[in-house]
Write a structure and sequence with these properties.
α2 packs across α7, α2 packs antiparallel against α8 and α3 runs antiparallel to α4. Helices cover 74% and strands 0% of the residues. With 137 residues, it is mainly alpha-helical. The chain has a single domain, classed as Arc Repressor Mutant, subunit A, CATH 1.10.10.690.
């Protein structure tokens, strides 16, 4: 539960603190986690960012230094407009709001899933566990 609490209390709380509270936070967090899972897990998502020319940003999230920001447009470039549009629909947001929220939260989620500064073999298990906890709450 520490990982989920850490993410919800940290980035998601700052991002959505004034926009709906816990339910909205867990919905966006769940969307980020599902996006990671649907795209083959943490390692594959990092590779997608590298192939899109955003490898330095992704490496900063995995590493132990400061996280580099990405924009909603860059996130759409990596995952596609259709995927972001589907998430926007699920969240009841427009495309720009959803891509912006996801772009702010994704680096923090990846950062929390890689506390040692590298993608580990148990990152998939942590992602699955966090998704299960979100769905149960």
């Amino acid at each position: 539960m520490g990982l989920l609490d850490s993410i919800l209390g940290g980035a998601a709380g700052q991002l959505l603190g004034g926009a709906g509270g816990g339910g909205a936070q867990s919905n966006v967090l769940s969307a980020v986690m599902m996006l990671l899972q649907q795209n083959g897990g943490l390692g594959n998502v990092i590779s997608q960012f590298e192939q899109s020319g955003l490898g330095a940003q992704a490496a900063s999230w995995v590493g132990t230094g400061a996280n580099q920001n990405i924009s909603g447009d860059q996130l759409t470039q990596v995952f596609g407009s259709g995927a972001i549009g589907q998430i926007a629909s699920q969240l009841g947001m427009d495309h720009g709001q959803a891509s912006g929220a996801l772009a702010q939260l994704l680096p923090e989620v990846i950062n929390h899933l890689t506390p040692q500064g590298q993608v580990t073999s148990d990152s998939h298990d942590m992602l699955t566990q966090a998704l299960s906890m979100l769905r149960g709450s």
